[in-house]
Amino acid sequence: MYPKIIEEFVRMCDDGYRLGFNEANGGNASYRMAPEEIKKCSEYLDLKNDGDWMSLGCEITGLSNEYFIVTASGSLMRNAGLDVEGTLGIVQLNDTGDAYKIIWGLEGRRPTSEFSAHLLSHSVRKCVSGGHDRVMYHLHPPAVIALTYILDLNDKIFSNALWRSMTECVMVIPDGVGVVPWLCPGSRELANATCEKMSARQAVIWAHHGLYVTGLSFDDAFGKAHTIEKSASIYLDILKTGRPILQTITDTDLRTICLSLGLKINEELLEV
Ligand code: 13P
Ligand code: ZN
Predict the structure, then answer these.
(1) Number of domains comprising the chain
(2) % of the chain at pLDDT higher than 70
(3) How far from the centroid of its chain's Cα atoms is residue 226's Cα?
(4) Last residue of a domain, one of 78, 113, 148
């Protein structure tokens, strides 16, 4: 048995694989650990390893001395439960937030190729969520990817398509989704575009590639990803019928749902 936080991380990887969101080495995830979780993992951690700092190439604001659980580049989420220490690891950032060292796991591997997108997004979400958002999850969900071929790549079009395809979607992402154009996987451009969107959204669609979500827990982040993909899939099912749309969820309906739950819908994205 591993500490609970590791078990929860593995479960999200396993769920992602089982639902077809994380094929082969597709997707990656990271978790910013709370002090009590670091303590619970301490028997595994090589805290004395002081030699192998790897440069991040820039200073990441507000993350100095933070600890992250992260998936290994090239690892299969399908294998997370079978090979925990080969699939995940724990890294610590240094005092200046510009280098990391591996203190557990990631055996013979490096953190995900999207590590800069993860760290920059953690930096932004830690600040805007008051420290609550801890999970970053990237996946390749088929319906979301399909929509990026037929809808204009903008936040308003995608947020409305998703909100209006399933009543509960707006409850899960009242801020809507951000959309970024196709950018090279693992690139600094993709990391920068993602973290820019993350300042106002908890979910970002990467055109023709996938989805990137944050949340305060694994249930929260995975629930967002699952809901967004379900809405996208219903949207496609509606299109596939070829029948005209006779009625839909209105702006008033969306506001009513949010009001009833004490949520604040992003008004800028309404009224397409
Ligand atoms: P990694 O195996 O490096 O995490 O890359 C997978 C991926 O989905 C890149 O976008
Ligand atoms: Zn990817």
Answers:
(1) 2
(2) 99
(3) 11
(4) 113
| pLDDT, tens digit, 9 for 90 and up, residues 197-251 | 999 999 999 999 999 999 999 999 999 999 999 999 999 999 999 999 999 999 9
Amino acid at 119: L
* Residue 76: domain span: 1-113
Ligand 1 pocket, mutate which of 114, 145, 182, 204 (most atoms under 8 A from CB): 114
pLDDT bucket at 272, cuts 50 / 70 / 90: low
Atom in ligand 1 nearest the alpha carbon of residue 113 = 3
Mean pLDDT for the chain? Answer: 96
The CATH code of the domain that includes 98 is 3.40.225.10
pLDDT at 139 over 70: yes
How far is 43 from 253, CA to CA, in rounded Å? 51
Query: What distance in angstroms lies between residue 251's CA and the mean position of ligand 2's atoms?
Result: 33
